[in-house]
UniProtKB/TrEMBL annotation, chains A, B:
This is LacI family transcriptional regulator. The keyword S-adenosyl-L-methionine does not apply. Pfam families: LacI (PF00356), Peripla_BP_3 (PF13377). Keywords: DNA-binding, Transcription, Transcription regulation. Residues 10-64 form the HTH lacI-type domain. The keyword Transcription applies.
């Protein structure tokens, strides 16, 4: 099919769709990168040639996206500050651009999914930031099928080999939290993690195990518990941990919000933090600094994750080269007041007595 | 100008713009409401007649908005859970519709404002939800000028007489909080409010004064303090209050986030909550239930405010009648564990000792 004068230039997404490859691959071919299989390169170049493009001009003549909008798609309810922090990062990255973000999550509603597909087919968006998606996600599958660029923040599972993702160094974060508690002298360290099927949970608990093993401390399965990422279930689960015959002296918790439930359980049982129990969280939510005692935690750079993902997406849309496929952002330790060396005995917190 | 067959039907917004009235007024004329000045009605009817509309068919023939998008515009940074809760409400109200929300705040950046005006002129949005806007707001002025429907959530000041708004019953909330503390036996009740130029602050403090006066308790100006709505400044201000020659036994605080700072100050000074100081907040943020002690607070229905505003907006866009211009949603008292009757003496909280 020769390019007729009336036909508008193809977008990268369209070339990718026609050639049956990802947008990242088209970008690589255009930018003459060497890490593309020869047969793939040939196929992409053929599609571009058929539309009358000279390879060296392609990068400039491709449309840089034309709707001026990207979708923000969360693979669950928009009901946690977790998603809000990522959203703020996306908003920040878009600030100096002409691109605007549309909240487009379909919440598994059939009608809304149909409307969303309709929007894609109308070219209503240039790309998408996906939160908590994986290969099985409707979003990811549809965007891939249509060759619309996307970046996944905090992937929920496996992605396609060329799909871009941005997440936190969850393994390192888990190791760092545990190593810090070990360095204070703790040996009996519990882990109260988020949902066990979430990759971030698996990575954090693997980091926890690694740190214990490195220190020669046996991993006690009775000390490893899971709950959703919210306060209520964490409270319940913490009560279980406090009912163990031999209590831990410290606990690594899967989210700051869970720490609110852990604090409540400890308060009700009269167990002082950090005197009788050290608590370390994960996320560094804005309120972590202001709970009492101020929460020591692992900073998960949610805002930065949203920002970095969006910048990557804008480059994909513009047809610029993207170096990394998987990006992990650092998770530093934020020391506050909820961790201390272990004490010999439990000390009742008088504030909790009636 | 007679309507030619090629011309698409005017939107309500366009009729409003041509007639120089608000969309609400056009809606009233179409729905044959009586509360429209005769000269105004005449002008609107003339515009519609010039475009070949029969009045009784107008409501159906008007386009129901065609971009399928509304803007969400916050008159400040998107940096607080306050805005996030409202946004969640907007998202919820849009769920069963085909309309999507665009985050379009311009953050007072000239270039972005220009882009936003451009989007308006291109008909890119059918309407807007404005948070913390007033008559001086660029958003409000531009939308009015172009006759694009909007609803203001939590107005920051005066609005045009026909502009729709949704807010909380701040005066009643302030009165309720204060009356509750009075009912527990408190007489020396401080108020640590948000920014003094914010209408919600003025309403809440007026409710506080009213409750005190009704109970025959003199208002002591030394007990009324202001800060921004965040924890840090509230902490500083609370330290000032605790340095007063005669301390209060209870405090009404302008936001739950401020309460985090108040709790910190009290904890550092060894003042037990609620034993030596009762604390009541405002907002009922998700974490209020989980701080220790669980925070008694006035529920500000932020999510509902976003939801109600969006439903109103959708009716405006569809040309349906809207009854109320100012809507205030109730602010009930949520009793938890941070308020109690006053005690004779201050009791030091041993947990705060080194």
């Amino acid at each position: 099919m020769a390019k007729s004068p009336e036909e508008p230039p193809l977008t990268m997404a369209q070339i990718a769709a026609v050639a049956g490859v990802s947008v990242a691959t088209v970008s690589k071919v255009i930018n003459q990168r060497t890490d593309v299989a020869p047969t793939t390169r040939e196929r992409v170049e053929r599609v571009m040639a058929e539309r009358g493009y000279m390879l060296n001009k392609a990068a400039r003549s491709l449309r840089k996206g034309n709707s001026g909008q990207i979708d923000f798609l969360v693979g669950q309810e928009l009901n946690s500050y977790y998603a809000f922090e990522i959203l703020r990062g996306v908003e920040e990255a878009l600030l100096p651009t002409e691109v605007r973000m549309v909240l487009a999550s379909t919440h598994a509603l059939r009608e809304r999914e149909q409307q969303w597909r309709q929007r894609l087919s109308e070219g209503a968006i240039d790309g998408a930031v996906l939160v908590l998606a994986d290969k099985r996600s409707l979003y990811l599958q549809e965007l891939t099928r249509r060759g619309i660029p996307f970046v996944v923040v905090d992937p929920f599972g496996e992605l396609g080999p060329e799909d871009l993702s941005v997440s936190a160094t969850n393994w390192s974060g888990g190791k760092l939290a545990t190593a810090y508690l070990l360095s204070l002298g703790h040996r009996r360290i519990a882990a109260l993690m988020g949902l066990p099927d979430h990759p971030c949970t698996q990575d954090r608990i693997a980091g926890y195990r690694h740190a214990l093993q490195e220190a020669g401390v046996p991993v006690d399965p009775a000390l490893i518990h899971f709950a959703n990422f919210h306060a209520e279930q964490a409270y319940q689960e913490m009560m279980q941990i406090l009912a163990l015959p031999e209590m831990p002296t410290a606990i690594f918790v899967g989210s700051d919000e869970q720490c609110l439930g852990v604090y409540r359980a400890l308060f009700e049982r009269g167990i002082a933090v950090p005197g009788a129990m050290s608590v370390i969280g994960f996320d560094n939510m804005p309120y972590a600094e202001w709970v009492t005692p101020a929460l020591t935690t692992i900073h998960q750079p949610l805002l930065e994750m949203g920002r970095v993902a969006t910048k990557l997406l804008l480059r994909l849309i513009a047809g610029e080269p993207v170096e990394s496929v998987r990006i992990e952002l650092a998770t530093p330790l934020i020391k506050r007041a909820s961790c201390a060396p272990p004490q010999g005995n439990l000390i009742s917190n008088p504030a909790s007595l009636p």
